[in-house]
Write a structure and sequence with these properties.
globular, four-stranded antiparallel sheet, 3 domains, about 15% strand, Chitinase A, domain 3
Length: about 500
C-alpha cells in the first residue's frame, strides 16, 4: 500500500493467524478479461489501448467490486444487467474520469489514499483500522490472483477522483418550490374510480392451426434449438451438520474447508485420475449432474445428487466456461460450500424437429394472438370511454357502456405502506391528474387499467414532516445523477473512442 502502510506489511503478515473468508465472485472469474482482451487495437483520445492496459482495467473492475465501491461502479456504468456491457462501459468511463480529473488538477495525495483505505469497512474491526485484516487481504486474496497493493490504491484514487469531480459537475443541482409540492402528492390520499382490462380474458378461445405451426417452424428454425447440456462430476466440500453456528470457530471451519478444496484442486490438476477417487481421498462428497443447462436446470433430482439451486446455477456458469469434455474447473465457492467440477460430456444444441417444437410453437403463437387481441380490446374500449367522458358522460356511464365493472379507491396514498401493491399502483397513476381527469391506459400485471381521479386529500402532517428531508435529498440525488450522466456522456464522446470491428466503426 502507500508507504505509510507498506513499511509494516512484513511484520503484520507474521501475526495473521486466521484469514476471514471473503467471497468475491468476480475475483474468481477471469472470463471477462479474456473477452475484452480479444478486442483489437481500440483507441481513446487518439492513442491505442494495448492488451496489457485492458487487462489491468478488467482487474481494477474486479477489485472495485470486491472492495464494495458500488458508488464508483454505479456512476461509471459498471452495474448494468449485461455483465459484458457493464465491464466495457466501466473501463471506458473510468479512463475518461481519470483524464478529466487530471485536467481539472484533481490529484489525490498518498496520505488521502491511505486514509481512505483505512476507512474501508473491509479492513476495520470495531470501527478501527485493523492492519491484520489488511495484510491478510493483500497476502491471501490479492497476491495469489495477480492483484497488487498498487491496484488497490488505484481503485481508491478513482473513488476520490469521482467524489471531487462529482462535486464540481453536480454543483448546479438545486430544488424548486414546485418540485417539493409535486413530490408531496406521493403522500396525499386519493379517492378515485378505475376499471381493469384483464389480459387473460378470452385467452382460452385462441386457436392455432397446424399450418401456422408449420410456417412458424420454417421461419424460425435458427431459434428453435434444443438446449446445450453438459454432464458433470462434482466434488462438494461442505460444513458438517455439527459445525459451529457462527463466530470465529465457524470462520476457522470455513477456512479449513477452503484449504482442503484448494489442496484437492492442486492434486487433480497434477494428475489425470478419477474425480470420484479424488473425492474419497479428500473426504468430499461426490455427485453427478446429468443434462445440466446454462440456467442451472438439470435432469438429476435425486437426494444423493442434491445441492441448492443457487449452487447449481453457479456450477452451471462454471461448467459452460469449460470448452471441452474432460476439462476441470478451479475451486468454485457458492455460499458456504466449495466445489470442483469436471465436464464428463457435452451435448451441443441442435435444431428441433417440427414434432419436438410443436408444443413450444403453439404456446408462443397462442400467447402472441392473445396479447394482440387483448391490446385491441383494451385500446378500443379506452378510446370509447375517453370519447364518452369528453362528451360529458360520467366515468361510471362510460365504463358501463363497455360492460366494464367500476372499482373504487378510497383514501389511498401512492406511498401508503398499508395498502396493497394493486392499490398503490392505481393511486400512483393519479399523480399527474387533476380532479375529474382520466389517466392513460396503464399497464399492470393483470393487463391494464384506467383510473379517474375524483379528489385528492391532505397528506398526514407527521408522515410528511418525517419524510420531507428524504424527499428533498431524493430529488437532488436524481438531478445530480442526471448532470453526471450528461457529463460522462459528453466527455466520453470527446474522448474519440474507437473499437475496430464494433457496430458503427
Amino acid at each position: 500500500m502507500i508507504q505509510i502502510l507498506r513499511n509494516n506489511q512484513r511484520a503484520l503478515m507474521l501475526v495473521v493467524a486466521v484469514l476471514t473468508i471473503v467471497a468475491f465472485i468476480f475475483l474468481y472469474n477471469t472470463t471477462q478479461l479474456d473477452e475484452l482482451s480479444s478486442i483489437q487495437n481500440p483507441t481513446i483520445y487518439g492513442k491505442p489501448l494495448d492488451r496489457l492496459a485492458i487487462d489491468r482495467q478488467v482487474k481494477n473492475y474486479q477489485l472495485t467490486m470486491a472492495l464494495g465501491q458500488y458508488e464508483l461502479l454505479q456512476k461509471l456504468g459498471g452495474t448494468a444487467p449485461d455483465q459484458e456491457r457493464a465491464i466495457t462501459d466501466y473501463i471506458w468511463n473510468v479512463l475518461v474520469l481519470r483524464h478529466e480529473a487530471d485536467a481539472l488538477g484533481i490529484l489525490p495525495t498518498d496520505s488521502q489514499v491511505a486514509s481512505r483505505i483505512k476507512s474501508l469497512a473491509l479492513f476495520q474491526t470495531s470501527g478501527q483500522f485493523d492492519p491484520a485484516k489488511y495484510a491478510a487481504f493483500v497476502g491471501e486474496q490479492l497476491t495469489p490472483r495477480g492483484f497488487t497493493e498498487l491496484q488497490l490504491e488505484e481503485v481508491v484514487r478513482d473513488v476520490l477522483k469521482l467524489e471531487s469531480v462529482s462535486a464540481v459537475v453536480e454543483a448546479p443541482a438545486a430544488l424548486g418550490k414546485g418540485e417539493i409540492e409535486s413530490a408531496k402528492r406521493f403522500f396525499q390520499p386519493v379517492t378515485a374510480q378505475f376499471v381493469k382490462f384483464e389480459a387473460a380474458a378470452g385467452a382460452d378461445s385462441v386457436t392455432v392451426a397446424a399450418e401456422e405451426v408449420a410456417a412458424f417452424h420454417q421461419q424460425n428454425q435458427a431459434a428453435l434449438q434444443s438446449a446445450e447440456t453438459r454432464d458433470v462430476e462434482v466434488l462438494v466440500f461442505e460444513l458438517p451438520d455439527n459445525a459451529p453456528a457462527d463466530g470465529k470457530d465457524r470462520v476457522n471451519a470455513l477456512q479449513k474447508l477452503a484449504d482442503a478444496a484448494s489442496e484437492a484442486a492442486s492434486k487433480i490438476a497434477s494428475t489425470a485420475g478419477s474425480l470420484e477417487q479424488a473425492a474419497a481421498n479428500a473426504g468430499a462428497r461426490f455427485l453427478k449432474l446429468a443434462g445440466l443447462e446454462r440456467s442451472g436446470d438439470s435432469d438429476s433430482d435425486d437426494a444423493e445428487n442434491s445441492i441448492d439451486s443457487t449452487a447449481t446455477a453457479d456450477l452451471a456458469s462454471a461448467a459452460f466456461l469449460l470448452e471441452r469434455a474432460g476439462a476441470t474447473s478451479d475451486v468454485i465457492q457458492s455460499g458456504e460450500a466449495f466445489y470442483i467440477l469436471r465436464v464428463s460430456s457435452i451435448s451441443p444444441a441442435r435444431p428441433l424437429t417440427l414434432d419436438e417444437a410443436r408444443e413450444r410453437i403453439e404456446e408462443q403463437i397462442k400467447a402472441q394472438k392473445a396479447q394482440q387481441a387483448f391490446q385491441a380490446r383494451a385500446t378500443s374500449a379506452f378510446a370509447a370511454m375517453q370519447s364518452a367522458v369528453q362528451s360529458g358522460k360520467s366515468f361510471a356511464e362510460a365504463a358501463a357502456a363497455q360492460n366494464l365493472k367500476i372499482e373504487t379507491l378510497s383514501g389511498v396514498a401512492p406511498s401508503s405502506e398499508k395498502a396493497g401493491p394493486e392499490e398503490r399502483q392505481v393511486a400512483a397513476a393519479t399523480l399527474f391528474l387533476q380532479d375529474g381527469e382520466l389517466s392513460p391506459l396503464e399497464r399492470a400485471s393483470w393487463g391494464a387499467f384506467v383510473v379517474a381521479l375524483q379528489s385528492r386529500g391532505e397528506p398526514d402532517a407527521k408522515t410528511l414532516a418525517d419524510r420531507e428531508e428524504a424527499i428533498r435529498e431524493g430529488i437532488l440525488r436524481n438531478k445530480r445523477d442526471l448532470l453526471f450522466m450528461e457529463w460522462i456522456r459528453a466527455n466520453r464522446e470527446a474522448a474519440r473512442i474507437t473499437v475496430p470491428g464494433a457496430p458503427g466503426q
